[in-house]
Amino acid sequence: MGQQVRDGFVELYGTGPEGVWSAPGRVNLIGEHTDYNDGFVMPFALPHTAVAAVSKRTDGVLRLHSADVEGGVVELRLDDLAPETDRNWTAYPAGVVWALREAGHPVTGADVHLASTVPAGAGLSSSAALEVVIALALNDLYELGLQRWQLARLCQRAENVYVGAPTGIMDQTASACCEEGHALFLDTRDLSQKQIPFDLAAEGLRLLVVDTRVKHAHNEGEYGKRRAGCEKGAALLGVDALRDVAYDDLDAALARLGDEEEIVRLVRHIVTENHRVERVVSLLESGETRAIGPVLVEGHASLRDDFRISCPELDLVVDTALASGALGARMTGGGFGGSAIVLAEAADVDTITKAVQEAFAAAGFTAPRVFEAVPAAGARRLSRGTSSR
Ligand code: GLA
Description:
- The active site is at residue 171.
- GO terms for molecular function: ATP binding; galactokinase activity; magnesium ion binding.
- Pathway: Carbohydrate metabolism; galactose metabolism.
- The protein is α+β, with helices and mostly antiparallel strands and 389 residues long.
- 40% of the residues lie in helices and 22% in strands.
- The protein has a domain at 2-195 and 376-384: 2-Layer Sandwich (Ribosomal Protein S5, domain 2).
- It has helices at 2-13, 91-102, 126-141, 148-163, 170-177, 222-237, 250-256, 261-285, 292-306, 312-323, 349-363; strands spanning 19-28, 40-41, 43-56, 61-66, 74-77, 109-116, 182-187, 192-197, 205-211, 328-332, 339-345, 369-372, 380-384.
- Strand 4 (61-66) and strand 5 form a beta hairpin.
- The longest helix is centred in the C-terminal third of the chain and has 25 residues, at 261-285.
- The mean pLDDT is 96.
């Protein structure tokens, strides 16, 4: 896709870009809604990427164009960029430029043409991919010398403040830092990371992503409500973040919350979910990959019953997959739609896929999109200058 995006740039702007970059979407294996509680997550990168051809400008203008969206080049003045003024896709790249400048980095403009294969609204981090690809491009072109985790932080700020979605740091870090063949065990408190080898094919396993096609949006309230509830829980328990509630102290902590029923459910999810991430890491490290299946299923039940962010389509994927022999399945990402993941023996994949498709048809749901996910590379530069590919 790099060459196509480069050609698109030439067509639009009449000259070649200074480079082409890509940044992937992600699925999260386990660790949901833990990232804004200073907890653990374990995403891996998808082969689906946002690709951007970019050149610097010196006149304070940002020109943006996407091959995926109808309409021409959007031209913005950097001095006019202001939080929560843009409801379009352009808010993601413009937000990154805003965040870089806010942080004091001397970005003076850019021409951008991009295209993405990350399905939008599917819980697969299409927005983080857009943010990270721009951040990496500008970091290289303006020689800012920022590290990957710093780019992720700036992208999160773009999303939180400029776009106005109160998300955590997982998606941007996944897009910026994941490595091929690995899942990323990330401590969102200090962003320390460990790459965990995750080669399912070598063990005769597969991981399917099932996009329910139910669209979700994180700036529409429910996500923020969960986040506020978790923060209230931490305050009631006298800790900085729910990460600080140890799994072994969970019952005592819940007792202290008394009749705050909703907070009890949120706290229970976060504390048990952090524990599930640690269990999955240790199972993978000891080569017991199949044993992570039941942990994924527990995670789904917790998101459905305690965190209450599943939906009938996601539950149907999980229930149908398990009934057709999957080793594990759960919703992935922010919830209220989006995608589920299914861990299965390679030999069972066709049966499970068919069963899910039939169950959706029988329920009268839109046909889901099913694809296999193999851990892919994080963000990177694809080419330099105008002539290279
Ligand atoms: C969305 C957010 C992430 C994270 C997940 C849930 O993807 O962008 O920060 O909170 O939901 O785990």
